């Protein structure tokens, strides 16, 4: 009887410990009641190759222990402001990185001096305190032209912007960067890929030779104004067959463990092992069929009698 | 007189084995109702997960194998019970195995069925499952796993079915005298599964032959399955998984938890279906000895698995081991080591601990412990990658299953119980012909012993007479 008691007590103690451990680890993961956090907003303007205008915000929140972390799921209201007043142009929710983007419509209200004035605000959010940030920018256009002579290949980027009179004018002394589009991103076209525009708004860049262009030799050249105080980020591209043609290998993948095609020895072992087992199964199925067919002499006689 | 005695005994075996298949009591109905309710809730959670994606679970970039894969490994482990109890004991001609083989084989079948479902649930997009076959790479342990599980499942189904053939014929033939529900369906089912069994000499010969073949084949297949499951982890370059002992470690863990599962099945069916006459305390004692031996092997491998890397404390392994030994998982880790390994050894080493009740409670602890152990193998390693976790939301660096995962997993668990319950209400939970055979062997043994005793007595009398 005593042994039973000891066993039961030990078991009860173990089970209690397991429950306590599980409860503790659950409790660790329970979110504490959250207080609203202060945030800081970074705002930027982008105009991509397809000429669509975009406002991007990156918001960071200050945690209790004074650490900065991305403000997730923050509701950000965007307002366009001009001399008439402020107009709500949309709302975005930040992602896991605290980022949100909004495409601007073409009829965005314009301010005096042909510039735009956008305000991003966090207002009455459940998780974050109110805060705002604004940006002023002018719209610039960039175009890319590609010219080739016998010896040189020139990439010409022309930057134009609307003047106070509403007419397009070249923009002088603005830094333009040249890139080549690769499969997973963009690559600087040369070590020194930054050129300033002249009085005609033109930056001409000598395209370097010997850049691989895949099986077709096709290259996408990008000209970009990056994080400019007045114009934000503006980008344009053009496709041309200036790349070195790389012929695809006939058999790029040898048979190996780390390649798409398995070594024959592995396939052989695999087939022998599983083939052996499955052949045995087939043998069993065949014998099950034999059991079904074998009804015994008496049964056969009985069936024949019934037939007669 | 003796013949009528044995006929009476055999009839009693048949009656005892088939009785539970005819009765649907209120308790069974309530039990099934509860199970179906949990399964329905699990199905709802799974549909919710399908609709909202894996983002609706607590799994994120780092912990992409959470409760589902832990449960998968656990279920595959439990499935080793059938092989051990049925195949190994059959091949070693252990007579006492007869009343418990069916429940062990059934446990293998259902745990494999639901174990195989768990990775599909974990896929998030089960509609892409076919891609595994279309684009699967022979080099990938994932493909090995799929194929070996399918192979083991097919083998286990056949292994469960083969000894059922004569029983199906018995059910079919006795249906006329039974008052039971779904008679038409039962008649069709039993006739279909009996494969036209009439018990001819040739049929018995074929059955014995194929059962011997299956008994031999299923053992290496079962061992290969859990070895391959371990390869999924061991062939990944991660702290805690990069181990050469993982294959035998997983197999030993599977056998230890699977045998404990069998004991629980034995205890349940013994009590619920009044099989006390057949599943005796001796069975529990013998199974307890087996589980004890397996726990000792498992403990030995467990020591190797943690002691050797802990001695070296290599940088990344060290981070993981420190977390397990002293960190956030230390409570669970040490509870498992002492509670589900050391404590069962102490209990089962004592003959009183191998009695039905203490052994059953010990097995409950072992089974629950085995489940948590799988979780401890899977999750902490994923939270200690070689590349540091940085610039990601804070909650990605921790994991605890949420309601969706618990609901789906509990749904699968109740699915296992539903299949077992329905099976036991349709088919006998003991192999009738095997138990009958056991009764006959026992009867013959007694008869031979009696004759032997008689002869010895006569011999003694003759010797005494000659001396006098």
Rounded to the nearest angstrom, the distance between the terminal CA atoms of chain A is 73 Å
What's the main sheet of chain B like?
A: none
CATH class of the domain at 38-138 in chain A: Mainly Beta
Structural class of chain A: alpha+beta
Contiguous helical run count of chain A: 3
Helix content class of chain B: over 70%
Strand content of chain B: under 5%
Helix coverage percent of chain A: 10-25%
Largest interface: A-B, 50 and 56 residues
Low-confidence segments of chain A: none
Low-confidence segments of chain B? none
Return the domain count of chain B.
Answer: 1
Using the coordinates shown, work out and report the CATH topology of chain B: Formate dehydrogenase/DMSO reductase fold
Known CATH architecture of the domain at 38-138 in chain A: Sandwich
Distance between the termini of chain B: 37 Å
Task: Give the tags.
heterodimer, A: 308 residues, alpha+beta, Immunoglobulin-like, nine-stranded mixed sheet, four-stranded antiparallel sheet, extended, B: 468 residues, mainly alpha, Formate dehydrogenase/DMSO reductase fold
């Amino acid at each position: 009887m005593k042994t039973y008691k000891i066993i039961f007590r030990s078991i009860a103690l173990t089970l209690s410990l397991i429950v306590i451990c599980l409860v503790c680890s659950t409790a660790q993961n329970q979110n504490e009641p959250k207080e609203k956090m202060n945030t800081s907003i970074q705002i930027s303007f982008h105009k991509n190759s397809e000429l669509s205008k975009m406002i991007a915000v990156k918001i960071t929140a200050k945690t209790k222990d004074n650490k900065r972390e991305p403000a997730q799921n923050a509701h950000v209201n965007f307002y366009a402001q001009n001399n008439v007043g402020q107009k709500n142009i949309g709302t975005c929710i930040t992602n896991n990185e605290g980022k949100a983007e909004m495409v601007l419509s073409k009829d965005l209200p314009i301010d005096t001096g042909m510039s735009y004035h956008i305000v991003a605000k966090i207002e009455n959010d459940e998780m974050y305190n109110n805060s705002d940030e604004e940006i002023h920018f002018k719209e610039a256009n960039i175009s890319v032209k590609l010219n080739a002579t016998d010896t040189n290949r020139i990439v010409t980027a022309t930057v134009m912007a609307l003047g106070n009179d509403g007419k397009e004018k070249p923009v002088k002394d603005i830094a333009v960067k040249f890139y080549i589009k690769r499969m997973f991103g963009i690559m600087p076209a040369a070590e020194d890929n930054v050129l300033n525009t002249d009085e005609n708004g033109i930056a001409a860049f000598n395209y370097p030779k010997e850049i691989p262009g895949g099986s077709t030799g096709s290259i996408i050249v990008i000209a970009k104004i990056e994080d400019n105080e007045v114009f934000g980020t503006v980008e344009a591209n053009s496709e041309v067959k200036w790349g070195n043609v790389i012929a695809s290998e006939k058999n790029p993948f040898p048979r190996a463990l780390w390649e798409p095609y398995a070594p024959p020895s592995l396939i052989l072992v695999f087939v022998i092992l599983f083939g052996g087992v499955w052949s045995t199964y087939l043998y069993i199925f065949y014998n099950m069929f034999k059991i079904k067919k074998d009804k015994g002499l008496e049964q056969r006689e009985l069936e024949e009698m019934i037939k007669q | 007189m003796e013949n009528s005695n044995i006929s009476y005994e055999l009839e009693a075996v048949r009656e005892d084995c088939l009785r539970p298949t005819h009765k649907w009591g209120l308790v069974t109905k309530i039990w099934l109702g509860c199970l179906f309710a949990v399964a329905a809730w699990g199905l709802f959670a799974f549909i919710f997960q399908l609709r909202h994606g894996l983002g609706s679970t607590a799994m994120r970039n780092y912990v992409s194998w959470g409760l589902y894969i832990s449960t998968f490994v656990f279920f595959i482990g439990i499935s080793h019970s059938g092989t051990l109890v049925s195949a190994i004991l059959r091949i070693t001609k252990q007579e006492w195995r007869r009343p418990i083989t069916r429940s062990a084989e059934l446990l293998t079948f259902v745990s494999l069925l639901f174990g195989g479902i768990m990775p599909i649930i974990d896929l998030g997009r089960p509609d892409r499952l076919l891609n595994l076959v279309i684009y699967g790479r022979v080099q990938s342990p994932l493909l090995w796993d799929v194929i070996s599980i399918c192979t083991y499942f097919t083998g286990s189904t056949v292994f469960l079915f083969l000894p059922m053939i004569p029983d199906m014929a018995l059910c079919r033939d006795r249906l006329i005298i039974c008052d039971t529900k779904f008679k038409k369906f039962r008649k069709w089912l039993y006739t279909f599964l009996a494969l036209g069994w009439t018990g001819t000499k040739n049929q018995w010969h074929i059955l014995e032959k194929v059962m011997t073949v299956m008994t031999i084949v299923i053992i290496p297949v079962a061992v290969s399955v859990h070895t391959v499951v371990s390869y999924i982890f061991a062939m990944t370059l991660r702290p805690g998984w990069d181990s050469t002992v993982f294959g035998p470690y997983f197999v030993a863990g599977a056998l230890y938890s699977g045998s404990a599962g069998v004991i629980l099945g034995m205890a349940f069916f013994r009590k619920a279906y009044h099989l006390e006459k057949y599943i005796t305390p001796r069975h529990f004692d013998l199974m307890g000895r087996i589980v004890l031996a397996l726990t000792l092997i498992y403990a030995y491998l467990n020591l190797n698995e943690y002691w050797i890397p802990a001695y070296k404390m290599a940088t990344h392994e060290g981070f993981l081991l420190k977390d397990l030994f002293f960190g956030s998982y230390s409570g669970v880790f040490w509870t498992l080591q002492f509670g589900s390994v050391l404590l069962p050894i102490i209990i089962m080493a004592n003959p009183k601990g191998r009695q039905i009740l203490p052994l059953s409670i010990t097995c409950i602890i072992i089974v629950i412990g085995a489940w948590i152990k799988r979780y401890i193998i899977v999750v902490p390693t994923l939270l200690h990658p070689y590349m540091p976790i940085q610039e990601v939301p804070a909650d990605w660096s921790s994991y605890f299953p949420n309601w969706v995962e618990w609901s789906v997993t509990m749904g699968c668990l109740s699915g296992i119980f539903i299949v077992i319950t329905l099976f036991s209400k349709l088919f006998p939970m003991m192999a009738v012909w095997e138990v009958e055979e056991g009764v006959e062997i026992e009867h013959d043994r007694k008869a031979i012993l009696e004759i032997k005793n008689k002869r010895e007595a006569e011999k003694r009398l003759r010797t005494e007479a000659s001396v006098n």
